[in-house]
Amino acid sequence: MSTRSNPDDRVTLLQGTLDLLILRTLLHGAEHGQGIARAIQKQSEDVLLVDHGTLYPALQRLEARGWIKPQWGTSENNRRARFYELTKTGRAQLVRERSQWRQLVTAMARVLGPEPTEG
């Protein structure tokens, strides 16, 4: 996963962040891989770009853990595609990971403190 800015300025996401984003995206319903990537890009206002080399191994990992389940279907451009759906276990995992992420963000904000003012 990367950001749209200069490739030298790409943000390295913490391990598991993509998993959380995928689970959250599938909360809205089943979606195929490219649709998941587009949804993350759109919801992040083009800051987060998910490349296929990162997305598909993550989908396989989530499927192996039982958090998502695939089903063949037809995409909006009339192509055969695997659609992924959140499982009950995946929904529970999303709740846990979302909570952990919020705790991390709060702790990081405390350590970083307020932005210094100029002047």
Give a verbal description of the structure.
This protein is an alpha+beta fold and 119 residues long. It is built from 4 helices and 3 strands; from the N terminus they run αβααββα. It has a 3-stranded antiparallel β-sheet with strand order 1-3-2.
Secondary structure: elements and pairs:
Blueprint: H1 17-26, E1 31-32, H2 33-43, H3 52-64, E2 68-74, E3 80-86, H4 88-112
Antiparallel strand pairs: 1-3, 2-3
Helix pairs in contact: 1-2
CATH topology: Arc Repressor Mutant, subunit A
Considering the protein shown, what is the CATH homologous superfamily?
Answer: Winged helix-like DNA-binding domain superfamily/Winged helix DNA-binding domain
Average per-residue pLDDT, rounded, comes to 88
Oligomer: single chain
Question: Structural class, please?
Answer: alpha+beta
Write the H/E string, N to C: HEHHEEH
Can you list the strand order of the major beta sheet?
Answer: 1-3-2
Give the strand content: 5-15%
Task: Outline the low-pLDDT stretches.
Answer: none
Number of strand segments: 3
Give the overall shape. globular
| Major sheet description | 3 strands, antiparallel
Helical run tally: 4
* Beginning-to-end CA distance, first to last residue: 37 Å
Helix content: 40-55%
> What's the CATH class label?
Mainly Alpha
Offer a concise description of the structure.
The chain is built from 4 helices and 3 strands, in the order αβααββα. The protein is of the alpha+beta class and 119 residues long.
Task: Please supply descriptive tags for the structure shown above.
119 residues; 3 strands; 50% helix; Arc Repressor Mutant, subunit A; alpha+beta; three-stranded antiparallel sheet
